[in-house]
Amino acid sequence: MKSVLRLFTRGAEFIAAAMLAAMFLTFLVQIFSRYVLLTPFGWTLELCLILWVWIVFFGCAFVVKEKDHVTFDIFYLAAPTKIRKVLAFVSAAAIVIGMAWSFLPTWDYIDWMKIRKTTTVVDPFTGKKIPMRTIFSIYAIFMLAVIVRYSWRFVDVLRKGPPDDDHAIPGHESEPPHLRHGEDVV
To answer: Which of 10, 27, 39, 84 lies most in the core, judged by the most C-beta atoms within 10 Å?
Structure first.
């Protein structure tokens, strides 16, 4: 199971890195067309924006770990373990309920966007402009990934208690250092 998860993680990281590389190369083409050819290509800007949307939502859904997210956890870390468990339950449940409740209306809007198309970017296989539904479908995938992730977190808190390792600061000791006999506090 761990090897499958590791393979999935590496694959997701590769896809995100490939999208970032494609965005950078598109940006270089944009600079070349604007300042060397003196005729900017319109599709480069639109493709950079599309790739940025995909990088953000794909990365947050499949690459970014829980401990890498920005959190405002000063009250969570100051609370005793029982309170942390309640806070972890409430936050996981609120995220799952909020995302699940808004999923169908969001998908309805994304599906409606099939009538709108990109301005300049075309599908390289068909030559047709790309429907906006295809572009923004990554948000629906992101929502499903968040629902699954925080449903699992809710179950994990039930089984193991509140997670503390997600809030650990790398290189920071969880307890203050003990003073040895003869040392002064500065």
So the answer is: 84
